[in-house]
Design goal:
By secondary structure, this protein is an alpha/beta fold. It is built from 8 helices and 9 strands. It has one domain: Rossmann fold, CATH 3.40.50. Helix content is 43%, strand content 16%. Bound molecules: NADP nicotinamide-adenine-dinucleotide phosphate.
Length: 260
């Protein structure tokens, strides 16, 4: 029977590479984005590129406001999938609030709450709804697209770094509690990924210290998709694990930047 993966935040960038990887492998893919127009556009592109594939997009935002996670829309999405007879065997939590521009002493607390609510609480909500169905269907797996900032901090991103650290703790706790239902929970920890932000601001990205990795390059979306797919489809006896995909960035004491 065709397996289904649900991938959040998959109208652009890394999410697209993850969707395409699962489609290449013959999965049915359910994906999310926040705007209905972008979701429809992405769905059409996937269907054009992967003829005969089954792809369903949902427009869903994490929050009703900074303080309130929109659980109802998560519930509605899973109920709709139930009605269609679609069981999500793999949940990939890729969407994230990047928490850019939130500065200590300047921004209101609600900005900090917005990031934690999306990256931790909403992902918990999605996991709970998915895991409830996995329990009934004999198991499944959840993959977080986390970040190496869960290990090491970067400047002016306190909310984001806190959210990724919280997410990693949550991943382990879920792996512990869900194991008895044959639900595996793991995390991929990217370092820098080449996204459309590189094309928009090449000067910044060409000089940012985290691009100077031991292997001399940074990841593309397909590298992250490989790691996600490994956890989803191959890692039968692995749960609560972390796979860092950052070109070795985190093992350095400092980046070695060659002049010229
Ligand atoms: N890029 C990097 O260098 C890097 C490094 C380490 C880790 N990561 C992690 O890798 C993952 C993918 O990164 P990326 O750079 O490809 O992401 P991205 O370009 O920022 O896209 C993230 C996705 O998250 C969705 N999203 C953002 N806020 C949301 C909200 N409040 N509710 C629901 N969806 C929301 C966006 O949806 P819309 O399409 O609706 O805007 C978008 O599709 C993220 O978890 C990120 O933290 C990225």
């Amino acid at each position: 029977m065709m397996k289904t993966a649900l991938i959040t935040g998959a109208c652009i960038n890394t999410g697209v590479a993850i969707v395409e990887r699962f489609l290449e492998e013959g999965y049915r893919v359910v994906f999310t984005g926040r705007s209905i127009e972008k979701v429809k556009e992405a769905e059409a592109k996937y269907k054009e590129k992967f003829a005969n594939s089954e792809v369903i997009g949902f427009a869903i935002d994490s929050l009703l406001d900074e303080k309130t996670v929109d659980e109802e829309s998560v519930e509605n999405m899973f109920s709709e999938l139930d009605k269609l007879g679609i069981f999500v065997e793999t949940l990939v939590l890729n969407a994230a609030d990047q928490g850019l521009g939130i500065e200590a002493f300047k921004n209101p607390l609600t900005d900090f709450m917005r990031v934690i609510n999306t990256n931790v609480v909403w992902n918990y909500c999605l996991s709970e709804h998915a895991a409830r169905r996995m329990m009934k269907n004999g198991g499944g797996n959840i993959v977080f697209v986390n970040s190496n900032t869960a290990y090491r901090a970067i400047p002016d991103r306190i909310a984001y770094v806190a959210s990724k650290g919280g997410q990693l703790g949550m991943m382990r706790a879920m792996a512990l509690d869900f194991g008895k239902y044959n639900i595996r929970v793991n995390a991929v920890l990217p370092g820098m990924i080449k996204t459309d932000r590189w094309e928009k601001n090449p000067e910044f990205y060409n000089n940012v210290p985290s691009r100077f990795t031991p292997i001399g390059d940074v990841a593309v979306g397909e590298d992250i998709a490989d790691a996600v797919f490994y956890f989803a489809a191959h890692a039968r006896n692995t749960t609560g694990a972390e796979l860092v995909v950052d070109g070795g960035n985190t093992i350095q004491l400092y980046p070695i930047i060659k002049n010229g």
